[in-house]
Specification:
Helicase, Ruva Protein, domain 3; 7 strands; Alpha/beta knot; globular; alpha/beta
Length: 242
């Protein structure tokens, strides 16, 4: 069995205390301890959540709450967002839960992975999906495509656990992606430099920036590469002073 660096679970604006409690129980089932909530709409420490958590109440007690996704993922290296969207904007990097599990299990031992789950009624926004390196989509029947939040978490954590059991000889990747905060700072530096150069449309700069996000997300830049790109944007800014 591989030594598994258990992923962090992030719930964005969860609306149901029963779901939060059920997620805690699932996390304990599969050895996960780090739950983060982004702007929850309910009391995650209330009786309803504790009822569903059963013996995982300690996960509820140490759950951290953040005002936005940027703060919630700042220290994580590799982010997986769950979505049911099938537009061209996201299709190229879809993973099934078992594919994502293999990537997580094969990650560098210091790589901190995060699984991001959206709102029960409308999932993750485009801006939130832009923060992710990869997307997970769970195949379901077209008759009812969307899954309950807690069930989606259950499926993803189950696949990660199974991957850690069934791939004992899988080598550990030596690649450690840069923390999400480092990557986001670099992307904002790039945005500013490319705007100054006139490369980005001032009326809609994020249209092209989205393409860069997807390129860098697939590449999983490490900290050294992020620093190199910072140097590039600084040099470009110096060539095009305001």
């Amino acid at each position: 069995m591989n030594t598994l660096n258990h992923p962090t679970v992030i719930l964005v604006e969860p609306q149901g205390p029963l779901n939060i409690g059920s997620v805690c129980r699932t996390m304990q089932n599969f050895g996960c301890e780090d739950l983060r909530l982004v702007n929850p709409e309910v009391d995650h420490l209330g009786e309803a959540a504790r009822l569903m958590a059963v013996k995982a109440g300690h996960i509820l007690d140490k759950t951290r709450v953040f005002p936005d996704l940027n703060n919630a993922v700042a220290d994580l290296n590799l982010l997986f967002g769950t979505t049911r969207r099938f537009g061209k904007r996201y299709r190229e990097t879809f993973m099934t839960p078992d594919q994502a599990a293999d990537r997580i299990v094969s990650a560098h031992s210091d790589c901190r992975c995060g699984l991001i789950f959206g709102r029960e009624d409308k999932g993750l926004s485009n801006e939130e999906l832009d923060r992710c390196h990869h997307f997970i989509s769970i195949p379901t029947s077209n008759e009812l495509a969307s899954l309950n939040l807690a069930q989606a978490v259950n499926i993803c954590l189950y696949e990660i656990h199974c991957s850690s059991l069934t791939e004992p000889d899988m080598p550990t990747a030596e690649w450690l992606p840069a923390p999400a905060e480092e990557l986001e700072i670099m992307l904002q530096h790039m945005r500013s430099s490319l705007l100054d150069m006139g490369f980005l449309d001032e009326q809609n700069p994020d249209h092209i920036l989205h393409a860069f996000r997807r390129i860098f997300g697939r590449t999983e830049l490490n900290s050294r590469e992020v620093r190199i790109l910072h140097g590039l944007w600084t040099s470009l800014a110096n060539l095009n002073p305001k």
